[in-house]
Every structure is written in structure tokens, then in C-alpha cells.
Design goal:
This protein is of the alpha/beta class. The chain contains eight helices and ten strands.
């Protein structure tokens, strides 16, 4: 109960640090107000940054710049949040919102700064509408320490294959991938071919692969993928 924890933090000095630890272990940033408030708190007490283990970035559909928190996050917090384990990106529209959500816009520096979060091992991308498959791939590949990847209800405007630059490739420590049928073609191709089309650099440690809402036409691609990662795979759910 967040309200109870806030009351505990104000009770006495002995309770303050423990309560604040619980309050900041999982942070949700869904608006400029929340973003600025969190930045002010971490700037005033840098030790708070070490308590954060999970950050969820929501698309602010009421804002003129809905993905401001996501676009600014790496530049502002790259050296302040040193122990994040899980990063969640959620573009879920509010009730009654019919149109496709806006695509996040990324500058090259976004991906470079995202690599500074060397403690992140889990990435979850949900209800997010990208400009193209390449943008999704660059976001995933920007975190080389990833061990778990979840991609659900994600789409992109420009259909068709997108070839990634040769230096790109799945993080080599990935052991778990979960995604739904909308992403099947692109993600399976990346898993099969590894970095820059070199199959010898495909995921060597992948143990878990879960795919939901898959179409019949994609079963052949799933089979080809399973052969590629067969030595390490322990759990498959389709």
C-alpha cells in the first residue's frame, strides 16, 4: 500500500529510509510531472537511485509529446540509476482511445545512452506502436546485458522486412524470450540468423521461448528456429 508506506516514511527517522526503499524499488513514470518529481527526489538524495530495481515508462497520451518520458529517460538517468534490473515500456492507450498510439521517436544518442544501464537484465515492451521493425530491434539490441525479453501487443507502421546493420545482434546472454504472433516473423528471423546474419552468433544461451497468438503460416518458421537453438532450449510454448 503506497499510501501507508508514505505515512510510515513521515513517522520517524528510523522508519524513513526503510519506507523510502520500498517506495522507490519500483518506479512508474507516465507524465512529465512524475518524471520531474522523480528527478528532483533522486537529485536531492542520490542514494535513492541505488534502491530502484524496476522502472515502468508509460506513454502520456494526454501530452503533446506522448513519449517524452521514454525519449528523455536515458539521457537524464543513465548515471543516476545504477542498479535497475527491469525496464518496462508500456504504450497502452486510455479507455476509449481508438486510434493507433503515436510511434516513439528515437535519436541515435538514445540507444548509446541506453547501453549505460549495465544492470538491466529484463526488458518488457507492451502495447507500443513503432514506426518500423528496425526501431523495435534497435531498442532491444541497445541493452547487451539482457537475459529476459517480453514483447506483447506491439505493431509497426511500415510492414515488410527490415535488415539491421551488421553490428546489431541479440544480446548474447538472453535466456528467455516471450512474444505474440504480431512479432513472429521479425523476431524469429533475428533469433535464427543471430548478429549480422551469422548463424554461429545466434543465441547460445536461450532456454525459454514462448509465442502466443501465432498463425498457421508461421509454424514452419518456428520449426526452423527451434532447430537453430536446439542445444540450449529447455522450454517451448506455442
Amino acid at each position: 500500500d503506497r499510501r501507508t508506506l508514505m505515512s510510515c516514511a513521515l513517522t520517524c527517522h528510523a522508519w524513513r529510509n526503510r519506507s523510502r526503499y520500498k517506495l522507490f524499488i519500483a518506479v512508474t513514470l507516465g507524465s512529465s510531472k512524475a518524471f520531474e518529481g522523480f528527478l528532483k527526489a533522486v537529485t536531492a538524495d542520490p542514494a535513492l537511485g541505488d534502491t530502484v530495481r524496476e522502472v515502468t515508462l508509460y506513454c502520456d497520451h494526454a501530452s503533446k509529446n506522448p513519449w517524452h518520458t521514454l525519449a528523455a529517460f536515458p539521457a537524464v538517468f543513465a548515471r543516476k540509476l545504477t542498479r535497475i534490473e527491469c525496464l518496462k515500456i508500456d504504450g497502452q492507450p486510455p479507455p476509449g482511445y481508438v486510434q493507433q498510439g503515436p510511434s516513439p521517436m528515437f535519436h541515435q544518442s538514445f540507444f548509446l545512452l541506453l547501453r549505460e544501464f549495465k544492470s538491466v537484465t529484463r526488458l518488457e515492451i507492451v502495447d507500443t506502436h513503432f514506426d518500423n521493425l528496425n526501431d523495435l530491434g534497435r531498442l532491444v539490441f541497445a541493452i547487451p546485458t539482457l537475459r529476459s525479453l517480453t514483447v506483447k501487443y506491439v505493431s509497426w507502421v511500415k510492414q515488410g522486412s527490415c535488415s539491421l546493420p551488421r553490428y546489431h545482434g541479440f544480446p548474447q546472454h538472453l535466456s528467455s524470450i516471450v512474444f505474440d504472433g504480431k512479432c513472429t516473423d521479425g523476431l524469429l528471423r533475428w533469433i535464427r540468423t543471430g548478429r549480422g546474419g551469422n548463424k554461429s552468433l545466434a543465441l547460445p544461451l536461450l532456454e525459454k521461448l514462448e509465442i502466443s497468438d501465432i498463425g498457421v503460416d508461421d509454424l514452419r518458421k518456428v520449426k526452423e528456429t527451434l532447430v537453430t537453438i536446439k542445444p540450449s532450449l529447455r522450454h517451448v510454448a506455442v
